[in-house]
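Pasting as-is:
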Amino acid sequence: MLIRETIEEMERNTLSSYATLSVNSKGRKRKEPQCDIRPLFQRDRDRILHCKAFRRLKNKTQVFLAPFGDHYRTRMSHTLEVSQNARTIAKALRLNEDLVEAIALGHDLGHTPFGHAGEMVLNELSPEGFDHSRQSVRIVEKIERDGAGLNLTWEVLDGILNHQTKSMPHTPEGQIVRLADKIAYINSDIDDAIRARILTEEDIPKDIRSVLGASVRQRLDRLIHDVVINSIDSPDIRMSDEVSDAMFRLREYLFRHVYRNPEAKSEEIKAKRMIKMLYGYYMEHEEALPEKYHRMILEGDESRDRIVCDYISGMTDTYATARFSEIFVPMSWKVEGY
């Protein structure tokens, strides 16, 4: 028996009846030989972990743009925190950890430079709109591997596409990541805001703290335990009404006091202007796009706007700043010999 088949048999014997088994996957769009060691979802996890878009997450803003200090979250550290939270829940519920991890590692691949500020600008500029969830799927389907994509399974793509509040994944593993994402960013953003002296623990309303706890550690413990307790022996992943309500009130509090805080967002006006000017430049100068993207316009049936959004959204903060400087900031002029 192949090692993969042994692992698949272990899944059948040990996982919950509600778990998404590797052998029951709806499969990939393009048929390909199976690995002799790794089940489908584990293989997807590895493909995402080794792709270029994943590595770029380390230099993309989470909330605080270009902060001073090494301990503020980036899109990469956020992704790893989502993965860890999600795996903890999946293990406790005996659901498929490989599927959970693949979705978690891929859920934010489509985020722009400068966090949601960059996403907002591209959504405003593009006639087709821009959404980082759809862009994450586009990256793994059409952009990675020079246009060949990663050929991921349907279940992983579904979880990535539907990880935001407005959508609902079709698997319990995808639903775990959807909640783990919120648990991660709410608590890490509070931690970073306290570090930046934007707020203190005592600023958080007492009624919220009385339900969720008075520290990041207590809140993570309460939220994760609540998901597990309320999702045991169920096809749906959910929280209790009390904890869910408190979490969303805490999220609203962060929108008012952190995400729209003038001090925390003081540099976003500049970042938005940079993205807008880069978009305008590449829309007018198609030839300036890298060869891969230029070829996508010439050979494909997609609009120039879509390809320009692909290129800009794939940039890191540092790369976007460097490209802006090269294009729009005058360089020193010199004469040889002087």
